[in-house]
Amino acid sequence: MNSFYERAFGNDSNMPSYDEVKQRLSLLFYNYLSHSEGPVRPTVPQSIEIGGTHIKEKPDPLPVDLAGFLNNATNGAIFFSLGTNVKLKYFDPQLIETIYQVLSRQPLRDIWTWDDQEPKPGNESNIYFQNWLPQDDILAHPNTKLFITHAGKGGVAEAQYHAVPMLALPVFGDQPGNAQLMMASGFGISMDLLTLNKESLEKGIQEVLNNPVYRNNVRKFSDLYRDRPLTARQSVIYWTEYVMRHKGAYHLRSPIVKLGFLARYNLDVYAILLLIFACSMIIFEFLLRFLVNTILLKTQSKVKRE
Description:
CATH class of the largest domain: Alpha Beta
Oligomer: single chain
Distance between the termini: 80 Å
Number of helices: 13
CATH topology of the largest domain: Rossmann fold
Number of strands: 8
CATH architecture of the largest domain: 3-Layer(aba) Sandwich
Largest sheet: 6 strands, parallel
Helix content: 40-55%
Strand order of the largest sheet: 5-4-3-6-7-8
CATH superfamily of the largest domain: Glycogen Phosphorylase B
């Protein structure tokens, strides 16, 4: 963290050191919500959980053509997006063709984030291609039944908030871990993108769409995620203004931040306990030697008298 701090501010003499900055922290925002995401963590009052700040409390209207496409999806729609960092142009053309063939024969409509300038893999009427799509607003639409995602943190959170089950195709970074947590929570399944074939992808899509367990699980999570005294964005505003009103919020911090290294880790206490233990062992050894010697002397004295 000190390295990141120096990279951001360099050797500016007007800036306090990283350790000094840590001492001045009034409040810390977490992109997390423990009572729904878990596990519950022990935190202090200065730690404010604001998971879901990027999710709109009320979705924006969709572009006219996209709104018409989704509104007329009588069987529902599948939203397929691998985010902005995963470029389709680097994929094996056969993999793109596999995905296209499976999506094109679905009875549902498909919305595909297509970021490549090359010709699209086909022009089936049930697939809507666009190089940028309002992901949060699409997931909020009641006709969206499945989200095929790379399992980025933001997209997973949006799908959880809008109660859309997922089929994850993680690529790198935190995505495999996010996909594993999503599966463990019962919100969908994860598949290996590089070994994908028509049969496995078709089977995965049908599993998530037709098994009500996934939608029920993510719907329960959505209820918990939304049920809080303030929305995520309201929490950010309230606590930011709270710090401004009180010229800091140092009273919310744990007193441990003011302690030195020895006191923080109770090394002084451990040293005293170790000293007491050592003294006790010395005294015990002295008493044991005294007792043994006394017994030996009495035994020797008794032998001599005999």
